[in-house]
Amino acid sequence: MQKLFSEESANTLPHYLQLLLLRGKKADALRLLEKQIEDDGGLFHDENSFQENRRLGWLLRIDLLREWGRLSEALAWTCLECEINPTNVAAQALKEQLKRQLRLTSKNTIQKNETSRLQPSLKWDGVAGMRELKAIFERDIILPLHEPEIYELYKVSLPNGVLLYGPPGCGKTFIARKLSQLLGYNFKEIKPSDLASIYVHGTQEKIGQLFADAKAMAPCMLFLDEIEALVPNRSGGGIDFHYQAEVNEFLVHLNESQKNRILVVGATNLPDHIDPAVRRPGRLDKKIFVGPPDLEARAEALKLFLKDRPQDTIDIVSLAEKTECYTFAELELIVNEAAREALGLRKPISNNLILNVINKNKPGHTFDIIQKMR
After folding, report:
1. What are the tens digits of pLDDT across the range 63-114?
2. Does residue 10 contact residue 371 with C-beta atoms inside 8 Å?
3. Residues 189-241: pLDDT tens digits?
4. Residue 248: which residues within 8 A CB-CB, separation 6 or more?
5. Which of 167, 278, 311, 321 has its CA 20 to 30 A from that of 221?
């Protein structure tokens, strides 16, 4: 059995599927997804990894159909999924979303579900590629918060908090901002330095005020960057008493956040440095890895960084294939360095110039390092 989501690259969405999408081969991409979704798994049918692989493949098919404006087809596939797998709560919620988008639901029902704000194509403007990541956000966060009645009916808990983790420079803050827009939540960003105080219990008071402010802004996404500095692991050596009190204060408010319509999102490069009590179920219980941009995202980033610069014909896809594991910041550096060299030569930016810069500037994280972070 060939898995759709493998571990053969730094990103789990396969290279060949991304190439089909970049080249506009929509029918081939859908056929590939259909083949993977309909694979019965054989001996691996009951394995969690196989089931997760199938669910993500199904979500990707629906996402692509919506992106291409084929909403009726997306609804048909969703209804079929609901019939075949009635316990797929995400499919039940998505069916209601699509019915409203196609105006197949009565006005009374639409008014009754005012919490739903999902756009017809779920537009992640400015977040190219990263389709698996976006599918996970939709399934685990967006749909539950937009369709709470369905999740409560199936007794599936709503997300209380999210932990975004992964290497630096991969856009965790940008993605969090975009997620808040898709949810229709106000966005409040906090860094550990914003809560620092020279007074005893001063940080505790600031934490309390932070959650009070977020409650006043509800629905609100409270984004905590470098969260490991705010709630460090209390079992580690050298943690002062005041840190322990601050972690306890944070936990008290975190426990109440969901009912106050506050979604707490933490970002870190060091998830193991966060106190285990913060990461346990019921708190920051959704843990999502945000890795370097995948092939589609790298191609779009290179296009963006090259825009309006003098250039020869450049094979964007080929360059994107040669920059696996590079972050957005590293891709921008490559284009800037190539532009600087082209300026010195008084020539347009060429493929060879960019390739030379790539060879001189290796990514900060290797594939092995990224895999260990997962």
Report:
1. 999 999 999 999 999 999 999 888 889 999 999 989 988 988 654 554 444 4
2. yes
3. 999 888 887 666 788 899 999 999 999 999 999 999 999 988 888 776 555 55
4. none
5. 167
Helix (H) or strand (E) segment spanning residue 220: strand 220-225
Give me the pLDDT at residue 42, please: 62
Buried b (16+ CB within 10 A) or exposed e, 93-104: bbbbbbbbbeee
On whether the CB atoms of residues 144 and 151 are closer than 8 A, the answer is: yes
Which residue intervals of the chain bear CATH 3.40.50.300? 161-289
CATH class for the region spanning 295-373: mainly alpha
CATH superfamily of 161-289: P-loop containing nucleotide triphosphate hydrolases (3.40.50.300)
Q: Distance between CA atoms of 282 and 258, rounded to whole angstroms?
A: 10
Which structure tokens are listed for 227?
A: 């969260």
- The answer to whether the beta carbons of residues 66 and 122 sit under 8 Å apart is yes
pLDDT in tens, 281-294: 889 988 999 999 99
Detail the DSSP E strand segments found in 69-204.
Answer: 161-165, 186-190
